[in-house]
Amino acid sequence: LLRFSFVGYESKVIRYVYLKDTVFLVPRTTEFEEVEVIAGENPALRIIREASNRRKQNDPERNLNYRLKSYSKYYTEGEMDAETVQGIKSGIIKDTSTVNAYKFMESQYFFMFESVTETYHKKPNKTKKIVLGSKISGFKNPFITAIFSQIQAFSYYKNSFQIFNAEYVNPLSPNSESRYIFIIEDTVINQMDSTFIIRFFPRPKSNFNSMKGLLYINSENYAL
Question: Which residues of 40-76 are buried (b: 16+ CB within 10 A; e: fewer)?
């Protein structure tokens, strides 16, 4: 007797005298039991809660007198929908104005503002800012420079950010996990402690002034 077997097929036993040039095996049908996958808690949420709970003790405006020289960059860029981009790349869309607009958006920003600012702060609420230098996409009007130097507040520990006349919910504000999704992107080890890099963005179908970006949180005292 000869026994033939292969993974995924039923075994077959044939007497040598009946053996032919080709032996056919029947595929085996396998049924798996139901597997239930239950997700644990997102590890990024623990870090976000710790950082939120320690906002007061880590807020430099509340606890420190300081002098700070900082560099800031603000820019706006355009973006086409995915279907149009695919049509341009595949050659289906050949309209000159659309193609040129796509090339423009890919190669440069619509607007960019850079500045170097020196800040003097005396706790808890006295602040003075001096613009040491700035550049605004070719503009040199000092009035425009003054406006853009006030676009964003320095403190990242309040419940919201104010940009121009709009307020945006801080991802470290109380109960922010019900509004934002947080994902640990990376962890940078630095001697005895480490820094968590956490990406955040609003939950689907959210209806609030939201932000998206990256948070860098120190593992020692959960400060930004």
Answer: eeeebeebbbebbeebeebbbbeeeeeeeeeeeebee
How far is 56 from 33, CA to CA, in rounded Å? 51
Residue with tokens 């209806």: 207
Q: What are phi and psi of 104, to 5 degrees?
A: -65, -45
pLDDT tens by residue, 56-82: 888 888 888 888 888 888 777 888 888
Task: Give the number of other Cβ atoms within 10 Å of residue 148's Cβ.
Answer: 19
Q: How many residues does the chain have?
A: 224
**Which residues partner with 213 through β-bridges?**
200
Q: Which of 213, 211, 212, 214 is closest to 186 using CA atoms?
A: 214
For residue 73, report the phi and psi dihedrals to the nearest 5 degrees: -135, 130
pTM of the model: 0.59
Using alpha carbons, select from 164, 144, 140, 152 the residue that is nearest to residue 213.
Answer: 152
CA dist list (Å): 16 to 11, 19, 112, 125 = 16, 5, 83, 96
Nearest to 153 by CA among 134, 132, 168, 137: 168
Q: How far apart are CA 211 and CA 128, in angstroms?
A: 27
DSSP string, 28-81: PP--PPP--------HHHHHHHHHHHTHHHH-HHHH--EEEEEEEEEEE-----
Q: What digits encode the pLDDT tens for the residues 148-171?
A: 655 555 567 888 887 767 788 999
Residue 203 has pLDDT above 70, yes or no: yes
Decide if pLDDT at 11 tops 60: yes
